[in-house]
Specification:
465 residues, alpha+beta, eight-stranded mixed β-sheet, five-stranded mixed beta barrel, 31% helix, elongated, binds 4-amino-1,4-dioxobutan-2-aminium adenosine-5'-monophosphate, binds magnesium ion
Length: 465
């Protein structure tokens, strides 16, 4: 018999008909007359209840039906007599696909910690929490592609292997086929990459922006959506070594239009979650983060604050004067750290903040320099619980200014020739941003550790699965 997915079975109005469902047993309980199996197939967080008449099935037949086992259940879909569900299935035929020894199956108990579940990342999608998170992750992917498609952006695929360090932060993972035990070096002791696979030093990309800019100078509005890699040794709940980034790049927009895009885009994604993922959000709201749904609603209803960096520093210094303690200093010129971001967003304004016009020296080489010569047109979006969720900027389109910055920062010029050509041939004002997909996921799910919103997290000293 053809399988019905549980999400459809639960919604079905056609009762008293034969039906077949397949999935993993969440629990089995009952008494001498009847047994109840809670079955989940991942299509929804909800289980379907399968009622087993013990006059028709023996205890022996049901013995392999333990938590974690996989079964195919055929029966009659009927209105449920019990509370908690509209329909249930009266079992007529049972097939066991795979057993799960109760003495060994790790998801037997309730209340397992997130830390423990990370050690069984191959099984954790079968829990309610991770099922919800990964269904939402899919939905956020769809929201992102839909938003850009509907707004006339083209999805542009930028390379993962590259020879340029977009952010200039020296956090790249090298890609080589060389024998690391026997490296060929030149007379100065430098590694000779000429016989390496790419004939030069290559790495995994930290951002698709530079290639994205090339595309925006031809297609007008593009976005990338792919994995990026950073060898930054930060063991925090908000950093991954492999994370997904969405990077739109748009010709002919200025700083204000860029901020409008950032705000509209994030709100669209959050609204999508509320419109498409309510069952999962309700679960997370109940068991993971009681303020979740309210926080999501408040973000789509509120106007983000737009705050120049210098004003932000004034607010933070005022707070220090009034007794607020921070771990890191925050004088004009210092990088804003996540405690400062969170103070501004959570305590001072109580809503998302787009911070603009940062000191030049704490930002990347490509940002457009303001007339004051000291600040650049960055537009980072700071979110409650998360801190920085988007990093964006208007790009410097003047060849001379860009060249001066590249020289000052000792960025190897010859490797940048193709990027500079966009400023040489038909240069245009343009701007773009990068949204950290897992940071968005943290916000939308209320999960507190970034390792728990990506299926298989990569972090320092951890690349299991
Ligand atoms: O601020 P970042 O470094 O900006 C860029 O890479 C630009 N090239 C983007 C652009 O303008 N096209 O990174 C962008 C975002 C951050 O705001 C953050 O959300 C996320 O990427 N991010 C990380 N997420 C998880 N783990 C990490 N190690 C991250 N580093 C950055
Ligand atoms: Mg940034």
């Amino acid at each position: 018999m053809q399988r019905t997915v549980i999400i459809d079975a639960l919604k079905s109005k056609e009762l008293n008909r034969p039906i077949n469902v397949r999935g993993w047993v969440r629990s089995r309980r009952g008494n001498k007359q009847v047994s109840f199996i809670a079955l989940n197939d991942g299509s929804t967080i909800k289980n379907i209840q399968i009622v087993v008449d013990l006059e028709k099935f023996s205890e022996e037949q049901l013995k392999p039906v333990t938590t974690g086992s996989c079964i195919s259940a055929t029966g009659t879909l009927v209105a449920s007599q019990g509370a908690g569900q509209a329909v249930e299935i009266q079992l007529t035929e049972l097939e066991i696909y795979g057993t799960a020894d109760p003495d060994q199956y790790p998801l037997q108990k309730k209340g397992l910690t997130m830390e423990y579940l990370r050690t069984i990342a191959h099984l954790r999608p079968r829990t309610n929490t991770f099922g919800a998170v990964f269904r939402i992750r899919h939905n956020m992917t769809m929201a992102i592609h839909t938003y850009f498609h509907e707004h006339g952006f083209f999805n542009f695929h930028t390379p993962l292997i590259t020879a340029s360090d977009c952010e200039g932060a020296g956090q790249m993972f090298q890609v080589t086929t060389k024998n690391l035990y026997n490296l060929k070096k030149d007379e100065n002791g430098k590694i000779d990459y000429s016989d390496d696979f790419f004939g030069k030093q290559a790495s995994l990309t930290v951002s698709g922006q530079l290639e994205g800019e090339l595309a925006a100078m031809a297609l007008g509005k593009i976005y990338t959506f792919g994995p990026t890699f950073r060898a930054e040794n930060s063991n925090t709940p908000r950093h991954l070594a492999e994370f997904w980034m969405i990077e739109p790049e748009v010709a002919f927009i200025d700083k204000n239009e860029l901020m409008d895009l950032e705000e509209d885009f994030i709100k669209y994604c959050v609204r999508w979650a509320l419109d498409h993922c309510m069952d999962d959000l309700e679960f997370l709201n109940q068991f993971v983060d009681k303020g979740l749904i309210e926080r999501l609603r408040s973000v789509i209803d509120t106007e983000f604050v737009r705050l120049p960096y210098s004003e932000g520093i004034n607010i933070l210094q005022e707070a220090i004067k009034n007794g607020q303690k921070f771990e890191f200093p925050c004088n004009w010129g210092d990088d804003i750290s996540s405690e400062h971001e969170r103070y501004l967003v959570e305590k001072h304004f109580g809503k998302p903040v787009i911070m603009t016009d940062y000191p030049k020296d704490i930002k990347a080489f490509y940002m457009k320099i303001n007339e004051d010569g000291k600040t650049v047109q960055g537009t980072d979006v700071l979110f409650p619980q998360i801190g920085e969720i988007i990093g964006g900027s208007v790009r410097e389109e003047s060849m001379d200014k860009l060249n001066a910055e590249i020289e000052k920062r000792h960025i190897p010029m010859k490797d940048m020739w193709w990027y500079l050509d966009t400023r040489r041939f038909g240069a245009a004002p343009h701007a773009g941003f990068g949204l950290g997909f897992e940071r968005l996921m943290l916000f939308v799910t209320g999960m507190s550790n970034i390792r728990d919103v990506i299926p298989f997290p990569r972090t320092p000293k951890s690349a299991e699965f």
